[in-house]
Amino acid sequence: MPVALVPAPEAQPRVFGRLLSQGTCYTAGMQLSNGTVILPLICAHQGLTWVAALLFPAFCFGDIVGNSVSPLVLQRVGRMRHRLLAVIAASVAALTLCDALIPWQGATTAVVFLLTCAIAGVLLGVAGVAYPDMVSSKLSGARRGELFLFQSAIGSVLATVVTLFVVPLLAHGNEMAYRRDLLWLGAVGLAGSAIAALFVGPVGSISATTRMSMRDTYREGFAVARSQPWFGRYLVACLLFGPVTLGTTFYALRTAHHSRSLHVLVILSSIGLVFGSPLWRKVYRFFGVRGMMLGSALLSVAAATLTLVAEVCGQWTHIWAYGTVFLLATVAAQAVFAAAISWLSVVAEESHRGTLIAFSSTLVAVETMALAAVLGNIAQNHSTVWPDVVVLVLAIGAALASLGAPPSETRRAVTAIRVPTVAPAPMLQAA
């Protein structure tokens, strides 16, 4: 069984700081240029409702391609994962600038937004495999959990400060200028992330595996899914949690007909990540992956229920209603990625980790692409509440699926002591 190589403890504080700087800039940039909120709202306000519904599916299509080629890309770059992530961040920054600079009129907006979303999906699909793999090779399990949550919190605070104090000074009350300023400031944050990534340095070691084709990647993924019961449960849970990750896009489109709601959503999105960071860190510490996924699903259920009640009572137009819902959806979605990576890290062999991440992420992206198109269309049906019922049912399904996730480390440790014949779980963890 392969042994995970972990950096020496004295080297980890310096590596942690560099990774935190890179991740903080990336989080702030992605929050300011939030493609799941800003671009759909721009399209909805321009009357391009069909484009608003297709933006996330376009991103998911690109994500499928990115996940498909990610094992080959990682083998090509070898130990230079930091350079790959720097190029990806710089490229996404350029795409964001393109969105900000074009005239937002009709066909031009539709074509450019769809293309940039698809290309960004390819890039972030590769990054979604490269980044956790790089972090896993540089930090111990406990520090990985802190990194993912700390960078979300600090980056979100930075994005909130910029949204509250910097953007209004630049926009001078002009709503269109406000949206453009959010995009180009987001591009600045992503460019900073690209620069910071160069200082992270190459990974210490990589698995000595042969280069696999995409067909071999999926063949191995299917083989593991058939032979390992845990991976089947993992895939089912990831598929059912797709609607949870789409919550912010769904509720943003539900509020698209409200005037001046964009700045509220951007700020609440950042606040939600700040609040969610310590919350999910404590949940993970005491309840493990299962606690994170169940808590995420229950928050999604609460958001859908509140939306349904608010619309039935005619209160949805008030900021307290849609603001609270968006906050809940943001916190719920934050836990999904961290929990999914942790689940794989707990039970998967290191030599298979990259392939399994790519395989499962591709399946989830296929589902999300179709689901996003459906939810994006029904979310803009503002005259009825049945779209909220659909989201509520899906959230309940995710809650049930979360019960199959691994329990907390404390319970796992007790089980290992009581049953010494069972091999202990790998210590590799990434929350």
From TrEMBL:
Keywords: Membrane, Transmembrane, Transmembrane helix
Matches recorded under Gene3D superfamilies: MFS general substrate transporter like domains
Membrane spanning stretches: 37-62, 83-104, 110-135, 147-171, 183-209, 230-250, 262-280, 292-313, 319-344, 356-379, 385-405
Keyword Transmembrane: yes
Protein name: Putative integral membrane protein
Keyword Transmembrane helix part of the UniProt annotation: yes
Source domain of life: Bacteria
